[in-house]
Amino acid sequence: MNELRDLYQEVILDHYRHPRNFGPLPEASHHAEGHNPVCGDRLTLFLIMEGDRVADVKFEGAGCAISTASASLMTEAIKGKSEAEVRALFEHFHTGLTTPDEAAATEALADLDKLAVLGGVRAFPIRVKCATLPWRTLAAALDRAQAPVQTE
Amino acid sequence: MTAMQPRSGGLDVARIRRDFPIFARPVQGKRLVFLDSAASAQKPRSVIDAERHVYEAEYANVHRGVYWLSQRATEAYEGAREKVREFLNAAAAREIVFLRGATEGINLVAQTYGRRFLGPGDEVVVTQVEHHSNIVPWQMLREEKGIVLKVAPVDDSGELDLEAFERLLGPRTKLVSIAHVANALGSVMPVEEVIRLAKTRGIAVLLDGCQAVPHMPVDVRGLDCDFYVFSGHKLYGPTGIGVLYGRAHLLQAMPPWQGGGDMIRSVTFEKTEYNELPWKFEAGTPNIAGTIGLGAAIDYVRSIGYEAIQVQEREILAYAVRELAKINSLRLIGQPRHRSGVISFALGGVHPHDVGTILDHDGICVRAGHHCAQPTMDRFGVPATVRASFGIYNDRDDVDALVAGLRKVQEVFGL
User: Fold this and answer.
1) Rounded to 5 degrees, what angle do the CA atoms B91, B95, B99 make?
2) Is the confidence at residue B194, as pLDDT, over 80?
3) Can you tell me the ipTM of this complex?
């Protein structure tokens, strides 16, 4: 049960039930769609970039607790940050969830503040793509990619 | 957990479990509770041994060698064809084509029968609850030939609306292609009525029997269908082997699909004569060991007998539906009167993947997702479901473990 409690922490369940920054953003300057074809998770991410900075961000869609909470936490984490800071955050997040090197993972997660609650996903490799889908969608929005992001 | 359950329904499940080596060892330290046989079933020792025996004692290419070993392999390969013929009660072994699986069977029919006999405006009728493998091949044919794909609706219980189905049958309808049992819901389709309605109008019928053959006897002549496909791996057989049954006169009229060795009688650069049925459709060296393994799987299932299998299945499905209904916030997706093998459900607002992860933690294997049937999910207004599916090795303990696992999901999610 402990591993499960680490995965489904109260903060994660809270963000799943009450996702922050959820809804449309009609005046978005950037947007992208993410899709996990295996489970059917879909999300659309909207960004307002002012110069190099994320002035506002929202998302819409339906997904599992991990992907929804990850998207919600991500929107909180990136608001006001520069593109370079956002991309660095994604890199740390990805390393924290996927590197086989425990020490490197702990170090990467330590830089993530609130996002670190998703660290429990490490023990569930199949679910890593749920946690990273919002981030990959964000990267696509920043790249102004045309094609929807897929996890597969 | 139920304490005493040595026998359940018509089967000695404990003895059957001993036939399947995978149940002999714990999975991640836990008793394996395998409730995903609709995706792919586990394999009995006899199937594993049959494949091993081919490679260890009787392996050579088939239909080629003059030497004893090749003849022996050919006999075993063609012997499996005869087993499948008998299994489906087909009129002749030449009506049995070995392919990679049911998906390949439907594609073969679309790409040969469909290409040859269907033209712009001709209609193919499927149902709302088909597997993608019985949707996409027809969409590909639509793009190529301009056929029309019509979709017969199901009601809220997941049963085919026969009246609506009948209304779809018109002068341009050339083929009805439907699942014998719907893979995401477990609805047993009224195939006798479907075939009767189609036949009186001279419409050909293909049945996708993937979810039917593990659970019920199939008699293609009794049904009077034109094509029947199934996959070996869902019938406790190997992966990579499946069957297309087709009426001989239809298979004869159809052009070959893939070209190559074994499907020809003679080849010159000017002209090639194709082989007879069924080899016309079996280009290249076939899945020899897999085919023989499928024969062993059929022997195994028949040794248990469908009568006992069905008694056991009715009992366990009734028990599972009853126990699941006791869980607050659990909603069954589809409640067909005639159900086989599968129970699909949603649990409160918990996403099926989260349910699947928590169940997996206790060694319980279920399918969580759209089950390659996204239109079915759309019909029931859910992005995905949790699907528990049953095989001959499942007993009440498995159901009890599932229910306990779902209560843990509720606990984690505070439902």
Assistant:
1) 145
2) yes
3) 0.88
